Amino acid sequence: MAIELSLPPEVHELTERTRDFIRERVLPLEDAHDGDIAAAGGDRFRVELQQAAREAGVFAPHAPVEYGGHGLGMSDRAPVFEEAGYSLFGPTALNIAAPDEGNVHMLAHIANPEQKQQYLAPLAHGDVRSAFAMTEPAPGAGSDPSALATRAVRADGGWRINGRKWFITGADGAGFFIIMARTSGEPGQRGGATMFLAPADTPGIRVGRHLDTLDRSMVGGHCEVFFEDLLVPDAAVLGEVDRGFEYAQVRLGPARMTHVMRWLGAARRGHDVAVAHVARREGFGSRLGDLGMVQKMIADNEIDIAATRALLTRACWELDRGEPAANATSIAKTFAAEAIFRIVDRSMQMCGGLGVSGDLPLARLSREVRPFRIYDGPSEVHRWAIAKRAVGAAKRALRDAE
């Protein structure tokens, strides 16, 4: 049976419109502000970018049609998100930046009608931003979510939440929080988590300091957040009590793949800049692009780009079929996070001194893509999970053969 890799006409058209919008409208703004969205104006700048994206017809490609989006599935998102990611500001412009993109996806699948009206609709429209509050300082939840320590206990008509989170992307200025808290069991146990929705101005929510990280392109930073006797009603429960870890998988697998899409676009820009540079730069009696060592770096970049797309395609295909795709997304995320960094790093090397200067975008691209090997699960944790599944399958096969 033939494998169909061509895009539907409407997706191809949206991809082309996104490409033109990013290169004509967004890239000049990124360059003017060195990829620092706070320096560009933060939320005010976001609103302006998103209005321009609406006018260009490329806004919210992932959001359900009934909430003003294009309703694209995972496979169809890939080329659009990659073109948006060609600029560090592109995902913000299209309203597909983390964490909002992943939260739109999760709310569309889990929220009840009232929650969709209160939270999903304004988020999809770009009227507000959101934050997903799961990561905690040690010994709390990090790469091991079962260490979740933030606690929600029953109170009159609802729940009382106490805990401390950090590295919460977009927390400063978010309109609402999705809070992961333990409602049963103890830290270290796999179950017992529940997700809660809370407007950011609810008494008991306090946003603390911005953690100073390498990346600069996400509105609202990466912050500490404190929940201090936060009272929320029963209606704030997202989904069902004690099923939070299960619901997190609805978000995490697709969100890892959309990270791959966006940052692959950024890596492609770095590669394009480097190839253009070596095609015209002369040295050692020829153009740099005619030298064997430079050609090897170009070829290795092309291979990493193609391999990342292939793994992404497989993972998105599984997700679109409704499969958990845990292994496929772990494989794609781990390979892509490392390949994307290699692409940008080689591109810097090809450009020599200019590569580490502010005259080209490569240094800031390196700054932005390096954290991907940690965000959404460090490479080492994904490798552990991949190996664990492989060994488990081998053990089951041995038992079946006995």
UniProtKB/TrEMBL annotation:
Domain (Acyl-CoA dehydrogenase/oxidase N-terminal): residue spans on this chain: 9-127
Family to which the UniProt record says this protein belongs: Belongs to the acyl-CoA dehydrogenase family.
Lineage: superkingdom: Bacteria
Protein name: Alkylation response protein AidB-like acyl-CoA dehydrogenase
Cofactor: FAD
Chain ranges of the Acyl-CoA oxidase/dehydrogenase middle domain: 131-229
Keyword Oxidoreductase among UniProt keywords: yes
Coiled-coil regions listed in the entry: none
One matching Pfam family: Acyl-CoA_dh_M
Subunit structure, interactors included: Homodimer.
Acyl-CoA dehydrogenase/oxidase C-terminal domain residues: 242-390
Alphabetized UniProt keyword annotations: FAD, Flavoprotein, Oxidoreductase
